[in-house]
């Protein structure tokens, strides 16, 4: 059964997009069929995957419509891009900033507006093992639609105070939506993204997060600050088995996927 996963935090710049893309990419390497839907008008996930497609796989992106046009026409296939084996993308573009206005103009109540994405992806999501939703770090209809459509949420926690507060507010909003709409959605976990390896601030924020969310809700796998991850934005995702920096990153994300699947399995058993 398809698993729809949103990565988020109400604080920007915490690594939400990078981790959404890397989770998608890593699962696709494991013969899982994955779709990433870029619901952020800034299109950072789209830029990273199209750079990877062009530079690494030497493929030219070919799609007939932007995601927003596909939404208006209810025809996602026109916007779909195959990035690599087992990895597809519904790309963002600047016109996606009109999505909220489209919802307000075409649907008269919050329920219909907030369930729009659910209905849109229900037509094709079963073609995939996983669907990842990358969204802006704000409280808006992008966030509400993504959460309503999701089975699981991974909250990205960069180890800084503002990110911790953003995570707390994000989970509060998730619980409100869950109550309002009777959603069957679970918090898969809080993923720590460390600013500096072993710094006192990181350790303090992690301790506060553990006290706030509970130890079981914190991923054991931590994403450390790595220059190679930043470099991917420029080069695309490189995966050279002879390069120690590439090997280190992909090994960490392999561990993260293993833990993610274990957490999903626990929820499925319940």
TrEMBL record:
Its EC number is 3.6.-.-. Transmembrane segments: none annotated. It is an enzyme of class 3 (hydrolase). One of its GO terms (molecular function) is hydrolase activity. Keywords: Hydrolase. It comes from the Bacteria. Residues 2-180 form the AAA domain. PANTHER family: COBYRINIC ACID AC-DIAMIDE SYNTHASE (PTHR13696:SF99), P-LOOP CONTAINING NUCLEOSIDE TRIPHOSPHATE HYDROLASE (PTHR13696). This is Sporulation initiation inhibitor protein Soj. It comes from Leuconostoc suionicum.
């Amino acid at each position: 059964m398809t698993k729809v996963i949103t990565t988020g935090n109400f604080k920007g710049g915490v690594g939400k997009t990078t981790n959404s893309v890397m989770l998608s990419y890593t699962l696709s390497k494991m013969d899982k069929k994955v779709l990433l839907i870029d619901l952020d008008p800034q299109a950072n996930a789209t830029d990273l995957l199209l750079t990877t497609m062009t530079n690494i796989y030497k493929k030219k992106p070919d799609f007939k419509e932007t995601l927003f046009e596909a939404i208006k026409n209810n025809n996602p296939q026109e916007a779909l891009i195959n990035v690599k084996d087992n990895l597809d993308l519904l790309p963002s573009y600047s016109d996606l900033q009109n999505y909220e206005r489209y919802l307000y103009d075409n649907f008269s109540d919050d329920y219909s507006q907030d369930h729009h994405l659910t209905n849109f992806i229900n037509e094709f999501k079963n073609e995939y093992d996983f669907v990842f939703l990358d969204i802006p770090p704000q409280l808006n209809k992008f966030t509400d639609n993504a959460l309503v459509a999701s089975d699981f949420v991974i909250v990205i926690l960069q180890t800084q105070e503002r990110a911790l507060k953003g995570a707390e507010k994000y989970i509060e909003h998730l619980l409100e939506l869950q109550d309002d709409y009777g959603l069957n959605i679970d918090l898969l976990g809080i993923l720590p993204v460390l600013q500096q390896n072993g710094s006192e601030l990181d350790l303090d924020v992690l301790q506060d997060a553990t006290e706030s969310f509970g130890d079981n809700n914190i991923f054991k796998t931590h994403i450390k600050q790595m220059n190679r991850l930043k470099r991917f934005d420029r080069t695309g995702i490189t995966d050279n088995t002879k390069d120690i920096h590439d090997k280190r990153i992909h090994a960490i994300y392999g561990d993260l996927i293993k833990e993610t699947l274990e957490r999903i399995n626990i929820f499925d058993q319940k």
